Amino acid sequence: MTGSVGIVGAGTMGAGIAQIAAVAGRKVLIADAVPGAAARAVDAIRDRVKTQVARGRLTVDPDALDLTALADPVGLAGCAVVIEAIIEDLAVKQALFAELEAVVADDTILASNTSSLSPTALAAGLAHPERLVGLHFFNPVPAMKLVEVISGLATAPEVADAAADLATAWGKTVVRSTATPGFIVNRIARPFYAEAWRLYEEHATVAQNIDAVLTGAGGFRMGPFALMDLIGHDVNEAVTRSVWAAFGYDPRFAPALAQRALVEAGWLGRKSGRGMYPADGAPAPAPAPAAPPPHAVTEHAVTGLVPPVGDAAPVGDAAPADEREREREPSPLRVLLDRAGVAIVAGDRDGAVSGGPVSGDTARLPGGLVELPSGALLTLSEGTTATALAAAFGRPVIVADRFLDPATATAAAIAPSDGCPPAAVTEAVGLLQAAGLDVYVIDDVPGLIVTRTVAMLANLAADALAGRVASEPDIDAAMRLGVNYPLGPLAWARRWGTGTVLRILDNLEDWYRDGHYRPSPLLRRAALAERGLAARESLLPSPGHSGREEGQ
Ligand SMILES: NC(=O)c1ccc[n+]([C@@H]2O[C@H](COP(=O)([O-])OP(=O)(O)OC[C@H]3O[C@@H](n4cnc5c(N)ncnc54)[C@H](O)[C@@H]3O)[C@@H](O)[C@H]2O)c1
Question: Which pLDDT value is given to residue 62?
């Protein structure tokens, strides 16, 4: 698409979009309701680009950028595309689009940078609703790679294609989404905050420890509380509430009372001086004090036992090829034992068989099972509490949280069963410290911190995929580029195994029984397929007979 680009709204986002369009060589016209705002934005853009050029990050002539400030959107009549980035208000945006439609050409594309309103609703009432598309940039626009192109019910495919081409030409990575609440990123990211709030409200541990585990064990760039303090709790909570309401108050998206209290107190985050953390920053996280590692541990149930799906019995030797393949991968616990360099005594390696030195249902612990010198067991979280496992095994159990990658993790969370002797906790702490990890001992909540957070991110990603909101690659790319996740949630589900993610969610839902953790039916289906077939290309089942005959 050639021709000039119109921008309405010269605030944070409008100025950012104007900047990247102008840097890409487009003629840009920018309008704002506040007199002088567009002109100030043009000056600010030139200054920012000058700084970028001075730092060697851009090679354009800042004075040659084709930027014009307008007093009135009527001046945008000749534009090939107009992108609005005004106040987030449906009625005000609809009025603007109606005003624009009266002056622009019939084929002018109208795009909205809305972060929460449906392009379907924005287009309602237009003479040509097919020309309106969502073009969701992320803040700060020049730095953030991702753009969500959102098709409303009426959006013409060629309009979405043209919007995607435009953003691509401006150096962005485009993902396509349908007009559903929160689009891709703001919908699937909710559990990153929600799980942190649930843990906080359950007093699993203090906020700074939750942040430390999600960064050090989960590989996230920032912890959820530090991130919410940066975003602003008012903004973050408003997005949560809007997605929650849009999904009919689905308990998966429910807001937290603790965050409501922060908003009511005016503790909005860095912008108001304090948020979850005081103005002078987060208190230092408090890992366990140094403990000596055990001399040797006994390793039972090495890894990769075929996980039962739902209530199905373990299939043992009937494990299909891809499951046996996974059996040969070292379990996360084995990776940590190797990092720790402790002596390993082989125990009951066929964990599917109960009895021997370890009684209880080891088949439910495919992440591995390690016996500490005190006799306590250490295992990887499957979404149950340590206390429930201790009841099954008849001895103390310590559950370890999962990791993005146990080979590179720098932190771990563990939860001991109720009544677990302190000496056993010390053994587990010493073992994981010997592996180079900061160890956080938290209360015995199921799914600890990373396990429940990632399982829920994968769950919502699977639901979005099932609803054809976006494709599998686009969902993962959106979460990596839009919110900097170290791995897309669907790729993460594959890494852990869809059966594992499903089991974690089933166990969490069984514990809380509030609907919050109910698994996506697609995850259940993919987990069954994972057991029954070789690994598939997509989590989605391959389309069956479409009823459409080739050549007719
Ligand atoms: N800030 C973000 O992080 C972010 C990220 C993605 C999307 N968005 C969306 O982008 C849009 C703009 O957000 P922002 O953060 O840039 O806001 P902002 O407050 O920084 O800027 C909005 C600008 O629009 C102008 N404006 C308001 N009503 C107008 C009207 N009727 N006509 C012309 N100009 C008008 C205001 O004067 C202001 O300059 C919103 O829809 C928001 O949801 C924001």
Answer: 93
Residue nearest to atom 30 of ligand 1 (CA): 33
Residue segments in the chain with a per-residue pLDDT below the cut of 70: 301-329, 348-366, 533-537, 543-552
At 364, give phi and psi (nearest 5°). Answer: -90, 5
The predicted structure's pLDDT at residue 535 = 57
Closest CA to 459 of 518, 402, 536: 518
Find out whether the peptide bond into 396 is cis, omega within 30 degrees of 0.
Answer: no
Long-range contact set of residues 267-271: C-beta below 8 Å, sequence gap at least 24: 267/233, 268/232, 268/233, 268/234, 269/228, 269/229, 269/230, 269/231, 269/232, 269/233, 270/229, 270/230, 270/232, 271/232
The whole-angstrom separation of Cα 32 and Cα 41 is: 10
Asked if residues 236 and 249 have their Cβ atoms less than 8 Å apart, the reply is no
Share the mean pLDDT of the chain. 90
pLDDT recorded at residue 546: 44
* 12 Cα to the center of ligand 1, angstroms: 7
Ligand 1 centroid from CA 114, angstroms: 9
Angle at 294 between CA 288 and CA 296, to 5 degrees: 150
Question: Given this model, what pLDDT does residue 319 score?
Answer: 44
Decide: residue 129, CB within 10 A, 0-12 exposed, 13-18 middle, 19+ buried: buried
Classify residue 139 by its DSSP letter. S
Ligand 1 center to residue 111 CA distance, Å?
Answer: 13
Residue 341: helix, strand or coil by DSSP?
Answer: coil
Pocket test for ligand 1, best of 7, 32, 234 (most atoms within 8 A of CB): 32
Ligand 1 atom closest to Cα of 93?
Answer: 31
Look up the pTM and report it: 0.91
Supply the pLDDT for residue 307.
37
Confidence at residue 533, expressed as pLDDT on a 0 to 100 scale: 61
Ligand 1, atom nearest to 32 Cα: 34
Residues with CB under 6 A from ligand 1: 8-14, 32-34, 37, 85-88, 92, 96, 113-115, 138-139
Considering only CA atoms, which residue is closest to atom 7 of ligand 1?
A: 115
| Ligand 1 atom nearest 15 alpha carbon | 16
List, in sequence order, every residue forming a beta bridge with 137; answer none if it has no partner. Answer: 147
The residues assigned a catalytic role are 115, 136, 148, 186
